[in-house]
Amino acid sequence: MRRRLTLLVAATMCLALLAFVVPLALLLRTVAQDRATVSASADAQSLVPLVGTADPKTLRSSVEHVAATARGPLTVFLADGSVLGTPVARTSAVRLAGLAGVSRTVERADGREIVVAVLGRPDGTAVIRAFVPAAELTRGVTQAWLALAGLGLALLLLGLLVADRLSRALVSPISDLSAVSHRLARADLTARARPDGPPELREVAGALNHLADRIQELLREEREQVADLSHRLRAPLTSLRLEAESLTGTDATRITARVDAMERAVTGLISQARHRPEADAHARCDAAPALRERVAFWTVLAEDTGRAVTLDVTAEGPLPVGVPADELAAAVDALLGNVFAHTPDGTAFSVTLSPRPGGGAVLTVADDGPGLSADLARRGASLGGSTGLGLDIARRAARSSGGHMALTTGRSGGAHVTLELGPPTPPASPAPPR
């Protein structure tokens, strides 16, 4: 936009300068020609009284003196054939003036010829000829044109400088608005636009700031509602704990452990909903231990339902990913929960974790069940009577790290879900001091 504004001003100024400079240049040339012509005519007219009355000797000396100081050739042709002043041949204009007694100005290729007929001499009509060479007609015109061109160029540069300043003052607030909108798109809700520039841009900046405030308010209300809903789960969990404590044997221990795990998950959900920052660009965890913990949790239930579980972690060292540990655990729980919810008892499944080229990890959950449609990757889509949010939780976890989720059908016909988890984002280096 800044370049376009500058080009627009440049084009406008060029047209204005052309409309001003071209006529002025032509006028300067005409003035120079008229000045040279008037000077030559004055020299010729100054000899008219002498040519009409002076004797030949006095006339010769006077003509030679005037011709010596004239800018161009100055000649007097007498009727007896005598030539005084600058010696030149008689031209057709001189002969015509001598015959007709008419003064005139004649344009020639090499200059301008001025002839003045002087009547009343005893020997006949005399003719005074003044000649203005072409160089004299254009003397000083080139210098004037150069000065005029320099003035036009200076005005153009000055106009471009002013246009650049004005366009910068207009474009800079727009660039700031764009930067703030991109920060808001990256979930940085602390970004605010500085009202600057024309009134329209200041109004847009105020509206953008109001929108950011409103988004923060809506998110705060949503988190409070999620926290309230999560808190309501504490009452049935407490009741379930009491029921578990009334049991005896290994069943009581197992159920109590699961109730404790669910209570920890609810507590973490409440804390996450109320105190999680708007954007955590540097979240990270080691995917291997987080995966092993969740698979170990689900292995107990798999044994109860007769399912074979295969865990394959191909990495020898840590596998850092750009996802918080609780989000990764929620994604694994969602995928394994789908296996238990949508496949019959006894269906085997496998979990594989391998390094991702370029950093991160690839998590794969495959089962031997009837398979799932790729349309179920949409939020809220379900064919089994569930909420349809499980796959969306996994998809959002992958996307938050810079990866993606793929839902395909395995060779045996079962579901094959792949999560590509990107590497953690390195912290930004501090800005150098100014």
TrEMBL record:
Mind telling me which Pfam families this protein's record contains? HAMP, HATPase_c
Query: Which reaction is this enzyme known to catalyze?
Result: ATP + protein L-histidine = ADP + protein N-phospho-L-histidine
- Residue ranges of every copy of the Histidine kinase domain listed in the record: 228-425
User: How does this protein sit in the membrane?
Assistant: Multi-pass membrane protein
Question: What CDD domains does the record tag this protein with?
Answer: HAMP, HisKA
Region of interest (Disordered), ranges: 404-434
What EC designation does it have? 2.7.13.3
Protein name per Swiss-Prot or TrEMBL: Signal transduction histidine-protein kinase/phosphatase MprB
